[in-house]
Amino acid sequence: RKSGRKRGQGPGGAPSPQGKRSRRSPAPQPPEDAHAQRVIANVRERQRTQSLHDAFAELRKIIPTLPSDKLSKIQTLKLAARYIDFLCQVLQSDELDHKVAASCNFLAHERLSYAFSVWRMEGAWSMSASH
């Protein structure tokens, strides 16, 4: 603190009106209300967790994986980021024929999945690399 004043003080050490804080604690709730709120919060947390789990399951379906892969959530996110980078490289290098690259069909997905798996096995990607 350069000015030497304490928080909540104006010039000369006088308390400033906006620096005051109320120290009152909230009014105690009846135990039934607190329990009901806790139950509702638990339900919301379970729904959030399930939604996150479902999203990771969908992401794992999209990302090409090797038969030996058992990916954690962080590994899944890192692999997804690497896959996106890989797809950008494929598009930039123009190695795929424009018709196949432009269409989002099964054959294009299979060819990209295969190319990504080869790319991973050649050591261009590693699970321990940070991204």
Gyration radius, rounded: 27 Å
Portion in beta strands: under 5%
Low-confidence stretches: 127-131
Per DSSP E runs of 2 or more residues, the count of β-strands stands at 0
Total number of helices = 4
CATH topology term of the domain at 32-122: MYOD Basic-Helix-Loop-Helix Domain, subunit B
> What are the secondary-structure elements, in order, as H or E?
HHHH
CATH superfamily of the domain at 32-122: Helix-loop-helix DNA-binding domain
- Net shape: elongated
Measured between the Cα atoms of the first and last residue, the distance is 37 Å
Q: Examine the secondary-structure arrangement and name the CATH architecture of the domain at 32-122.
A: Irregular
Task: Name the helicity range.
Answer: 55-70%
Mean pLDDT: 74
Domain BHLH: 36-87
Keywords: Developmental protein, Differentiation, DNA-binding, Nucleus, Transcription, Transcription regulation
Protein name: TWST2 protein
Region (Disordered): 1-36
